[in-house]
Write a structure and sequence with these properties.
By secondary structure, the chain is α/β, with parallel strands linked by helices. Helix content is 49%, strand content 20%. The chain folds into two domains: 151 residues, Rossmann fold (3-Layer(aba) Sandwich); 53 residues, Helicase, Ruva Protein, domain 3, CATH 1.10.8.
Amino acid sequence: MKAVILYDSKTKGGSTEMLIDSIGQQLAESGLYVEKAKCIATADYSFIKEFDIVILGAPVYNFIVSPQLLGAFLQGNLKKHLKKKRVALFLTCWTAESMAAVFYLPQLKMHLLTNRILVEKIFHPVESSSDNAIESFVDDLLKQYERSIGSRNKSIIWSDEAQDWLEVVPGFLREKIRSMAAEYAIMNGYKEITVEMLDIARHEIGEK
C-alpha cells in the first residue's frame, strides 16, 4: 500500500513539517510505502494516481488554510487527480479543535465532495511531537482504509474462471491479489472481475 503526504508550510522545520515526518514514519513502520511532497499551487499532481491514500496537511495562517495547498485546488489540477481517491486531512493551528473544524476544515472539504475522507484531525502545534496524538491519527487512518476496502470489495463479483485462476495463486499472495484486483475493478468501472480484466490489470500495473 502506498501513501503520499501533500503539504504546505511556510516555516522550514516547523511544527507542521515535524508532524508530517512523524506521520510518515509511523505509516512506514506499519508497512506502507510513503512519500511526501510540498504543494505548489500550479504543479502537476498527476503523480498521485500511483498512491492508495492521499494525506493533505497544512497550517492555518490568518484564518485561511496555507495558500499553496488551497491554490492546488483552485489553480492547479489537484482536484482532478484526487478523483475517487481515499483522503485524510489534518491542519495545525492554535484555534480550539471544535472551532477549527467549523471554520478551517471546510476550506478543504468543499473541494472533496466526491472523495472518501477516511479521517480528519486538528493538531494543536504542541501535538506535533505527541506520540499519542500522532499514533491515534495513523491508527484511525489505517482502520478506516481497511474498512473502506473491505466494504467495497464485497460489492465486486468474481467470475468462475477468475476464481479458479485465483485458487492457483500461492496462499500467502492470494488475499493481496484479491484486494488489488477489486481495487483495480472499482477504480476502472468494472462490475465483475474476469480473467480478461486480470490480464489487463497485470499488464497495466506491470508497465508503471
